[in-house]
Amino acid sequence: MNTVGFIGLGIMGGPMADNLLRAGFAVVGYDLAEDSLKRLEAAGGRVGATVAETIAGADVVITMLPDSPHVEEVALGPGGILENAGEGLLYIDMSTIRPDTSLRVAEAAAAKGVRVLDAPVSGGEKGAVDGTLSIMAGGEADAFEAARQVFDVLGTTVVHVGPAGSGQTVKAANQLVVGGTYALIAEAIVLLEKSGVDAHRGLDVLAGGLAGSRILELKRTTMINRQFKPGFRIDLHHKDMGIALAAAREAGVALPVTGVIAQLIAAARAQGHGSLDHSALLKVIERIND
Ligand code: NAD
Predict the structure, then answer these.
(1) CA 241 → CA 7, 78, 124, 177, 186, distances in Å?
(2) Which of 1, 12, 20, 194 could lock onto 59 through a cystine, CB 3.0 to 4.6 A?
(3) Is 224 in contact with 203 (CB distance < 8 Å)?
(4) What are the tens digits of pLDDT across the range 146-166?
(5) 219 Cβ below 6 A of ligand 1
(6) What is the pLDDT of residue 10?
(7) What is the distance between the alpha carbons of residues 259 and 156, in angstroms, rounded to a whole number?
(8) Residue 171 appears among annotated catalytic residues
């Protein structure tokens, strides 16, 4: 595999494409935003004018798009990936979308003889920049093996979690844990501050004990300092909680804590914080207490 078509060069896709270029792949990119394309060219990539041009000559195409409708349009729509896929193309969707959409894409791809994986990621912008993402892939084992070369550039924890759609189910589980962790760290900060205890020192202790987490490690200082530049936007986490609740309904299970977290994230959005980092959940907990 030498040439990667990369569609969706935003906060995550941009640095992922950079890493592929640095690893020696040729990258042809496509995005609706002009500045993303300029960035790719500056890093040594080539810009495709259309999806068809982007995947012509590519061994593998990656999509890193916001949500299910974007993936449906780019993968299944007119002028999209499946319509233009050449012999032997491997299609890896790394966006976070609904598991049932991934299944639909997998079925349509199989009908066209295109190998496909749903391979969402965790690790945030930093993981994308550092090439240390966790990648959870759903699909056929041979497609996973073929994708390994690309995954090893982008991530450090790379797991084939099961058949088509299961990557997205694992990601939904990931997002409810991340959302819940942010909500509880926000509550801890409010408790500490309202009690007159220094939150920096308090969370330093938590980070070193059983309550420690990667989120506490990376985000406690910016949260306490009320710096909410994204990162991962509240709008996207709101989307992901919808995916988690839909997946729960599909599986016939009740996830009561996930329901509460989903409502807190919806409140952050309703309060106008949709484009802030998801750590801005702190604003909701603060407002409840003002
Ligand atoms: P983003 O909004 O920064 O990037 C998405 C890019 O897709 C944008 O540049 C946009 O112009 C482009 N785009 C939208 N529609 C398009 C279309 N039809 N054709 C071509 N390009 C199109 O989002 P992001 O933060 O990079 O997230 C991408 C995906 O990764 C989402 O599903 C998100 O949930 C997931 N994710 C994000 C993070 C994070 O920390 N940001 C972490 C893990 C997973």
Answers:
(1) 24, 29, 16, 10, 18
(2) 1
(3) yes
(4) 999 999 999 999 999 999 999
(5) no
(6) 97
(7) 31
(8) yes
Q: Which two tokens stand for residue 101?
A: 């959409």
CB neighbour class for 156 (10 Å; exposed up to 12, middle 13-18, buried from 19): middle
Boundaries of domain holding 280: 169-289
How far, in Å, CA of 132 to CA of 109, rounded?
Answer: 29
Reply yes or no: is the peptide bond before residue 5 cis, omega within 30 of 0.
Answer: no
- Whether the model clears a pTM of 0.90, i.e. scores above it, the answer is yes
CATH number at residue 55: 3.40.50.720
8 CB under 6 A from ligand 1?
Answer: yes
Measure 96 CA to ligand 1 centroid, in angstroms.
Answer: 9
Q: Which of 164, 194, 225 is the last residue of a domain?
A: 164
Cα 67 to Cα 96: distance, rounded to the nearest angstrom: 7
Structure tokens that stand for 155 in this block: 């991530």
